[in-house]
Amino acid sequence: MRKTLTLILVLCALPLAAQPLRLPRPSPNATLTQTVGVTDIVIKYSRPGVKGRQIWGGLVPYDAIWRTGANEATTINFSDDVLINGQKLPKGTYAFFTIPGKDSWSLVFNSQAEQWGAFTLGVSDATPIEMANVFATLAAEGNYCEPLPVRAILNPDGSKTKYRGKLVAGPRCHRVVSQDVARAATDAARCVTGYGSAKGSCDGWSTSPMVYATLHRPVAGKSGTTDNNRTAWFCGFTPQLAGAAFVADPDDPNDYVGSGRSTISKYTFAETLRDALKGQPKLKFTPPSKQIAWHGDRDGTDDADTGN
Questions:
Q1: Which of 221, 253, 246, 245 has its CA nearest to residue 232?
Q2: Domain extents for the chain?
Q3: Strand locations in 226-300 (E)
Q4: pTM of the prediction?
């Protein structure tokens, strides 16, 4: 991660300097083209250098998903529909992942071609915006809303653009979790941030107390790491805003960046939301009902937060 942070700082400084010297990438880009029958197959990938390292079972672990290269995910394009292990795969471009094994490999074709490796919690194509939207669903008390990049699209006369009677940039929402279940999940996630639950004391437990200490407003969330602390995530939300941040080394999946840098994602989340919500009212979460909350907790008629 230290190398990645340095690269970001250098890129930020480039507009203030003269024309930069173009240097080769440590893992250079490569393209492989092959025609099988009448079908053209094009594979684009970055070639990782061995550099004296153990690759199989070392740098690239067995039985774990791999991007089949370095840097951005490897892509494969088929000019025609093809059969892979007896299954039809429509023509087009796919992100190409593999799961290396000692005796056999598994192939994974992902329709989301433009992505960066497989740094995720659970599945290979999850992105920070998807993770953030999971927690936004809890903030919206069980309503899932598709993330949109714009708030409104206007016509020349200033009116909002519609298509077939619906706003083009209007909310696209539907309920996926009951309101009370979402409130209960939120109440449990409040313990993680140090904010404290409305239905219990959390027994003094918190893995990310710096989040509430930084925000000083109602907040819930969850920290997490992938296998062997190779990545470290924090996803969370207030009643108004949700976010997700993670730390990883995209060039070396065996670099255990999460073990010593797990707080980076937590502070990144907390400081970003603190600044984004500056001047906004400190809204409170609604506690879950007595029917779903643990019966040993207090009645939950009042939120635990004082609003300070």
A1: 246
A2: 25-110, 128-142+177-276
A3: 232-237, 242-247
A4: 0.57
